[in-house]
Structures are given as structure tokens and as C-alpha cells.
């Protein structure tokens, strides 16, 4: 058993709501806070107790709210401050917690701080300029002005944008409408802290810290392409996080989920070990892109889909669960709003849709740690069915599409990469029923509903005890009954690329989970695995499976006969 004292979030089962796409209550085509309030009963029935909402702040929505224009107001797209207070009130009344996204690495270029910073004639220019990161142009060999460095933004293209009035560039590691903040500026930090305190005073129970490992940059601005190491995971960002932890997070007993890719054991504990003042839970992405194709130069990086390296996924889970075994809690999730839909990504969203969605849930949700279910995952929502580039909405899509074409991809290849990997795949409207706009809205939504709403929707699955939704409810209930956040796990045959077999230990019973991750049948050594000690408890097949042959994506959970 882990350390005491017990905190409320040790029993958290988190549900991530992508606010723009969950439920539109006022029928303007955009999801909103009242929409979440309308669905609190649904969330309760699912068995979750913590809601994480994506950024709700006023924003020009270049990056759907990750570009904040005012840290103290709710975006009119999403409602009002009164709506927000009501959400907190209703959630708390229903024994649910609310955590919000906190964007600390950058603001919108429309934020008043940046408006003052970029305008030499603004009365407060001198004060705000240093809230951001500026650099003089370099000279090329012909004496022409060029970019300060060749660093590449996460959304493709240079990290530098020129401002003529200053004859300087500002740094943006995401879109050019998202200038990076200067964390070495004390006044900037003070202003951000005031914003954090504002939401704490309104009663939020925690935050998810966006892009946390990018807060510090290499101020020597060395050359490099893409140069990620000069603006990622530099040691000083921990000092900033600790400062926030000491002053704001710990004293208010908040749950802090921190987003940071690339950490290893020691740094992970620094972030979210039991004595850390930074986060409580670390969100990393080591298992999220286990099917890249590095040979594809036309759509490089995350964009090319290859064969799934299942051994890597299992090793990653085993590694991270072990890190936090005595020292905290592992964060359990398949994906968020930045990766494709899991059933399309690691499962099969056509022939074996239901079966593979269930297999993915069964393999994950009995493991130790704190789970995060991504909206729509519980009904097996899939990647988009879009045929036009203009159907996509994400800022990243358009820079990357141009990159693909420049790399020699044709339109079809570029579209396929987007349909497989773009972030919009995980951002389509929640499919509540098979009627107009899937019950998300009464008008055309900001992003098109997936055509498969007729077969994949909440209403249909709510009345079907064999649905994916029903299985999620069963698994989450079992998690609670068996206190699986604190459980232990053994991975069997971790190198094997076909099976995902584990033994998890709960409060009352042990469970053996046997999953076929492949689209072909496999055989499992059942006598050895079961050893006469287990009986079948749950499965994802139309009829009770028997024997050692596992159909494509078949999953079975066996329970140990003897109780503890
Ligand atoms: C990470 C968020 O998850 C992503 O959606 C966003 O675009 C970037 N940070 C920038 O805020």
C-alpha cells in the first residue's frame, strides 16, 4: 500500500472533456459549460468522479483555447463566469471534482500583454515587452536579415515571427499566434500567479499544466534544427513548477496533472514523486506513438503509420508503473485531444470495431494508477471520415499539409496522413444519438460530426448491456471495488508482439487479463496461464469463449477462485 495520508484524488477516475466538442447547450454549434452541466448525470452513471475540461478562457481560438487572451474570463463561446461557478457547484453537489487546463507557456498574440509588448508606442510597452522572448535578426552572408535560429515549432515552420516596428523576432514554439512567455520575468510570473489564484478561489480542485517542460528556454539561442532540446526539459523549468507548487498548489491541496514528454525515472519522481512539490500525476506520451514509420520521408515524424510495436507499449506501462509503485501514482490513459482515436489507432475501427474497442479498454483499465477516460472513448468513437482538407480545423493541419506537399507527398498521401494522425480525429462532436448533429447541437457544429453517429452513439449503447459503454461502466466499477489504483501488476511475455497478458492484484481478488492485440487468431497456453486457479469473469465475444484459440482482438479476464 502506498504512502499516507490519503488524498481525495487517490480515488480519482478522471474524464477529459474537450469543451468545444462535448455538448452545445445554446445551439451555436460550439460545446459549452452549460452543456457539461447537462451531462453531469451521464458522467456520474459512467462511474467517473473528476472532470478535466480543456481551456475555457477567452481566446481567439487559434488553437481552440490554448491561446489565451484573458486568463480571468470565460470565453463567450463557452459561457460566462456564472456558468463556470454553477459547474463547480453542480459537480461538487454530485461528489465530483473539476480540474481545468492551465496554459503557462504562452498567451495569445491578442492578449493585452502582447499587444503592449509588440507596440513601441503603447504606454506600457516598456513593462510588458519583457513578458515575452525577443531576438534581433541575424545577418546572412549577403548582409540580409534572417531568423535568429533554425528552431522548428511543434506545429511546423520556424519558431520566430518578425515584428517590423521593433525590428525583432518573438519566439513561439507553437503557432505564431501563441507567443512564448518569459518565465525569467518576475512581473510576468506574478501576473500569472494572480490568475491561478483567481480560479482556486472559485473552487477548482486542480489543474492540468499545459506544455510544462517548455517553460524555460536556452537563452544563448544556439543553432539547431529542429532544436527542440533548446526549449524542452531544461532544468530550470522545475524551479518554476516548484515555486507554483509551494505557493499555490500544495497549500490549496490541488490535484496537479502535469504534461511533460521525455522524462525518465529520476525526473519523473522529481515531477510527481511523493515528496514533489510540482505535480501529483505526470502525463507523458511514451505509449502513444508506438506505430510510427520512420522510413516515410513524405509525411515524417508522428504522421506516418507503421506496425504497432506492442512490446514497446507494454514495456512503457511496466516501466512507468514501477517508477511510481511506492512513490506516487501512474497516470493511465490511451490518448487525449492531441492523438488519434484509440480504436482507430491501436484497434480496428471497421470490421472489429466493438471487439477491439473493448479489448483496448480491458487491457488498460484494470492496471494500477489513476485513469483518464477521453470523451467518446467509452462508446468507441473513431477517427474522422473527412474527404476534404477544408473539413479539418486544427491549426497544425494546415502547416503540416504544406510540409507534406513540399516533401513530395501528393494530395491523397497528405490526406491519408491527416486522417490517420491529425488531432482533429479526437475532436469531433460527441455522438449522443443518431439524430441531427448527433445530439451535440441543433445547428451545424464548428467541426463536422462523424458519419458513423448512426451506429456509434450513447443512446444506443445505454440500452445495450453488451455495448462498449456498458463494459466501461463495468470496468470502472470493478476498479473501485478492488481499489485498483493501488493494485500491482505483472506483465507476461512482455517482448511478445501479439498478446497483452497481465496479472493484476486487487483488494479482494487477482485478475488475469489475456488480450489478443492482432487482427488474426492466435493461440495462448491456457493450461499454464490458468493453472486451474482462475475462472472466466469477463470477455468481449458474442458467445462465451473457450479453449486456447483467441479470435482477432479477443480479450478475456479471468478471476482467481480464491478470495484474499
Ligand atoms: C499541449 C496541448 O495538449 C495541445 O493541444 C496544445 O496545442 C499545446 N499544448 C499548446 O498549448
How many domains make up the 3D coordinates? 3
The total count of strands amounts to 22
Widest beta sheet: strand line-up: 13-12-11-5-2-1-15-14
Average pLDDT, rounded to a whole number, is 97
CATH superfamily grouping of the largest domain: Glycosidases
Rg: 24 Å
What is the name of the CATH class of the largest domain?
Alpha Beta
Poorly predicted runs? none
Shape field: globular
Q: Fraction of residues in helices?
A: 25-40%
Provide the structure class: alpha/beta
N- to C-terminal distance = 15 Å
Number of DSSP helices?
Answer: 17
Instruction: Indicate the CATH architecture of the largest domain.
Output: Alpha-Beta Barrel
CATH topology of the largest domain: TIM Barrel
Bound molecules: 1-deoxynojirimycin
Strand content: 15-25%
List the quaternary state of the chains. single chain
Major β-sheet profile: 8 strands, parallel
Q: Explain this structure to me?
A:
This protein is α/β, with parallel strands linked by helices. The protein is built from 17 helices and 22 strands. The protein has helices at residues 19-22, 33-38, 40-46, 81-93, 112-117, 125-128, 186-201, 236-249, 265-272, 310-323, 342-345, 353-364, 395-406, 411-421, 458-462, 468-481, 526-530, and strands at 14-17, 50-53, 57-58, 70-74, 97-103, 134-135, 138-139, 145-146, 160-163, 168-171, 206-210, 255-259, 281-283, 331-332, 370-374, 488-492, 499-505, 510-516, 522-523, 534-539, 549-550, 555-560. A hairpin with a 4-residue loop joins strand 9 and strand 10 (168-171). Bound molecules: 1-deoxynojirimycin.
Amino acid at each position: 500500500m502506498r504512502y499516507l495520508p490519503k488524498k481525495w484524488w487517490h480515488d480519482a477516475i478522471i474524464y477529459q472533456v474537450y469543451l468545444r466538442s462535448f455538448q452545445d447547450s445554446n445551439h451555436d454549434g460550439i460545446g459549452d459549460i452549460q452543456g457539461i452541466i447537462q451531462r453531469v448525470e451521464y458522467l456520474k452513471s459512467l462511474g467517473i468522479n473528476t472532470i478535466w475540461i480543456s481551456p475555457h478562457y477567452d481566446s481567439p481560438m487559434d488553437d481552440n483555447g490554448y491561446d489565451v487572451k484573458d486568463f480571468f474570463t470565460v470565453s463567450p463561446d463557452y459561457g460566462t463566469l456564472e456558468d463556470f461557478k454553477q459547474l463547480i457547484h453542480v459537480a461538487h453537489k454530485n461528489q465530483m471534482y473539476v480540474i481545468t487546463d492551465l496554459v503557462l507557456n504562452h498567451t495569445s498574440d491578442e492578449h493585452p500583454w502582447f499587444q503592449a509588448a509588440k507596440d513601441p508606442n503603447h504606454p506600457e510597452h516598456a513593462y510588458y515587452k519583457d513578458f515575452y522572448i525577443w531576438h534581433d535578426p541575424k545577418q546572412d552572408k549577403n548582409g540580409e536579415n534572417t531568423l535568429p535560429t533554425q528552431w522548428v515549432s511543434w506545429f511546423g515552420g520556424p519558431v520566430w515571427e518578425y515584428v517590423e516596428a521593433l525590428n525583432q523576432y518573438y519566439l513561439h514554439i507553437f503557432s505564431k499566434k501563441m507567443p512564448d512567455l518569459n518565465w525569467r520575468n518576475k512581473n510576468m510570473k506574478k501576473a500569472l500567479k494572480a490568475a491561478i489564484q483567481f480560479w482556486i478561489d472559485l473552487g477548482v480542485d486542480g489543474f492540468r499544466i499545459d506544455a510544462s517542460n517548455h517553460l524555460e528556454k536556452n537563452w544563448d539561442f544556439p543553432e539547431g534544427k529542429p532544436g527542440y532540446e533548446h526549449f524542452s526539459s531544461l532544468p530550470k523549468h522545475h524551479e518554476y513548477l516548484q515555486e507554483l507548487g509551494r505557493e499555490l498548489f500544495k497549500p490549496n491541496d490541488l490535484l496537479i496533472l502535469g504534461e511533460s514528454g521525455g522524462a525518465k525515472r529520476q525526473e519523473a519522481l522529481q515531477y510527481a514523486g511523493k515528496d514533489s512539490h510540482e505535480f501529483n500525476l505526470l502525463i507523458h506520451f511514451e505509449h502513444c506513438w508506438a506505430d510510427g514509420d520512420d522510413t516515410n520521408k513524405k509525411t515524417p515524424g508522428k504522421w506516418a503509420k507503421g506496425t504497432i510495436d506492442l512490446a514497446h507499449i507494454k514495456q512503457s506501462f511496466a516501466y512507468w508503473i514501477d517508477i511510481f509503485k511506492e512513490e506516487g501514482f501512474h497516470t493511465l490513459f490511451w490518448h487525449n485531444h492531441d492523438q488519434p482515436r484509440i480504436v482507430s489507432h491501436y484497434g480496428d475501427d471497421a470490421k472489429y470495431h466493438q471487439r477491439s474497442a473493448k479489448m483496448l479498454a480491458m487491457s488498460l483499465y484494470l492496471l494500477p494508477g489513476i485513469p483518464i477516460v477521453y470523451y467518446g472513448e467509452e462508446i468507441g468513437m473513431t477517427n474522422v471520415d473527412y474527404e476534404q482538407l477544408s473539413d479539418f480545423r486544427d491549426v497544425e493541419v494546415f502547416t503540416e499539409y504544406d510540409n507534406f506537399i513540399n516533401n513530395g507527398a501528393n494530395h491523397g498521401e497528405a490526406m491519408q496522413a491527416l486522417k490517420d494522425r491529425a488531432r482533429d480525429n479526437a475532436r469531433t462532436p460527441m455522438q449522443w444519438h443518431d439524430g441531427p448533429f448527433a445530439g451535440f447541437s441543433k445547428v451545424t457544429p464548428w467541426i463536422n460530426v462523424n458519419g458513423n453517429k448512426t451506429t456509434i452513439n450513447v443512446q444506443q449503447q445505454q440500452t445495450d448491456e453488451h455495448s462498449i459503454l456498458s463494459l466501461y461502466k463495468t470496468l470502472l466499477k470493478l476498479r473501485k471495488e478492488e481499489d485498483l489504483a493501488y493494485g500491482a501488476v505483472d506483465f507476461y511475455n512482455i517482448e511478445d508482439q501479439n498478446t497483452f497478458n497481465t496479472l493484476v492484484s486487487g483488494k479482494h481478488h487477482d485478475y488475469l487479463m489475456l488480450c489478443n492485440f492482432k487482427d488474426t487468431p492466435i493461440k495462448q497456453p491456457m493450461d499454464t496461464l490458468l493453472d486451474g486457479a482462475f475462472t472466466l469473469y469477463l470477455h468481449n465475444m458474442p458467445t462465451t469463449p473457450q479453449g486456447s484459440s483467441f479470435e482477432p482482438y479477443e480479450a478475456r479476464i479471468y478471476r482467481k477462485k480464491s478470495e484474499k
